[in-house]
Design a protein that fits this description.
Blueprint: E1 2-6, H1 10-21, E2 25-29, H2 33-40, H3 51-60, E3 64-67, H4 70-73, E4 79-82, H5 97-109, E5 114-118, H6 126-137, E6 142-146, H7 156-161, E7 166-169, H8 173-183, E8 193-196, H9 198-229, H10 233-241, H11 262-275, H12 281-293, H13 296-304, E9 313-317, H14 332-342, E10 346-350, H15 355-362, E11 367-368, E12 381-384, H16 389-392, H17 396-402, E13 407-410, H18 417-422, E14 426-428
Parallel strand pairs: 1-2, 1-4, 2-3, 4-5, 5-6, 7-8, 9-10, 9-12, 10-11, 12-13, 13-14
Helix pairs in contact: 1-3, 5-6, 9-11, 9-12, 11-12
Bound molecules: nicotinamide-adenine-dinucleotide.
Nicotinamide-adenine-dinucleotide (NAD) binds at residues 6-12, 29-32, 35, 83-86, 98, 101-102, 120-121, 149, 151, 153, 260-261.
GO molecular function: oxidoreductase activity
Keywords: NAD, Oxidoreductase
Pathway: Nucleotide-sugar biosynthesis; UDP-alpha-D-glucuronate biosynthesis; UDP-alpha-D-glucuronate from UDP-alpha-D-glucose: step 1/1
Amino acid sequence: MKIAIVGTGYVGLVTGTCLADLGNEVICIDKDRGKIALLNAGRIPIYEPGLPEMVIKNTCSRNLTFTDDLPTAIADAEVIFIAVGTPQGKSGGADLSGVWAVGRQIAENLKGPATIVIKSTVPVGTNAELSRQMAEITDVPFDVASNPEFLKEGAAIEDFYKPDRVVVGARRPEVVATLLRVYKPILGADRPFLAMLPESAEMTKYVANCLLATKISFINEMANLCTGYGAHIDDVRRGIGYDRRIGFQFLAPGAGYGGSCFPKDVRALIHMAKMVGLPCQMMEVVDSVNESQKDVLPRLILNHFGGSVRGLRIAVWGLAFKPETDDVRESPALVLIEELLQAGALVRVSDPQALEHVRAIYGDRLDYCEDPYSALEMADAVAIVTDWKQYQSPDFAVMSDLMNHRVIFDGRNCLDEAKVLSSGFQYQGIGRLTPG
Ligand code: NAD
């Protein structure tokens, strides 16, 4: 099939590349000329494991091309995906200006019948409104379908090929059939294709993300209670997780959720509820628990040092909002860094992929270290904020030699607590030990 993807970010680039790899003829479009030039030069603007090899393979076979020229690119596309960003707007709701702009541009340039597929996360009603706006511009027949994306950064390719499900919202069976053709090669008995109304598909995405965010805020609050009462969250997790109604997934305490999706999607749902005069109390609490959770790690550090870290050297391991990505949007590490800087600490940071994104924000206010161990030189403490694999079993002897004080703050509970303690370090995790 001839497929166009508008918006070549995390979602658009992964989707376009994987669809090309399935044998489709895919053209990825972006208004960011720098990004397109980079891609045309064979360079990948994001970090996503396995992606560079696939992009190169499919550009070489000419299944995958990149352009900033939308009118030409969509001219003979049968399916046009919209995968532009929908960041949080001033009101708290999703900013849809990108979706409207792309819809307008597609309508102005449509030459023949096409299925427009909204892959971006958008509030309920966007499908209907986009159809209405486009129909005002063009007489060419088109359909607008909704196909929310559930991929996880860091495992995006695996998620494309082995999705838990594919959700498609459409008003006509012919549109469902078109999208079934797109996804057929990756569907299976345990990978269902779920067709529904666009409104339900739009809602599904928010409900999924809001439930995941709720699980995180729930376990974080329980972890903090454990700290208050001298219980150990790891034991409590084991105690609940074996109950098959509960399970272990997304019930790991930490420094709070971040990223480009959960925070904005939770707030977008709250805004959607407001717009129809309905309460959304649970999500308001989930959001505020998460904001407070980002303060837990800075507070642990400050308390450990008697309320002041002025002049102390604090190392931060991990800047991305989660491992296997370079994405620092709403990362809890940024809150920690900000609070440490304001408290007068000298902050040395390290991350396998996200260093440059943080340098773009903080410039020379931080020390940037490619090697995590060099961040520890003369450090008074180290805080782990992203549970990258390479941080999970560090060389404690080397750490010990490098650091001024042997204390570790583990914002992801990713270290073996017993090993840390037996290596002569002081240790504080989230809900693991009662802080002294
Ligand atoms: P992104 O910011 O990485 O990429 C968006 C791209 O769209 C950018 O390259 C931008 O230049 C481009 N763009 C914006 N306006 C454009 C226009 N008018 N014409 C052409 N290109 C334009 O965003 P993302 O992380 O890929 O997210 C895209 C959507 O998918 C969002 O709605 C997000 O909520 C949703 N989503 C993201 C993820 C994720 O893990 N990143 C997962 C599921 C869903």
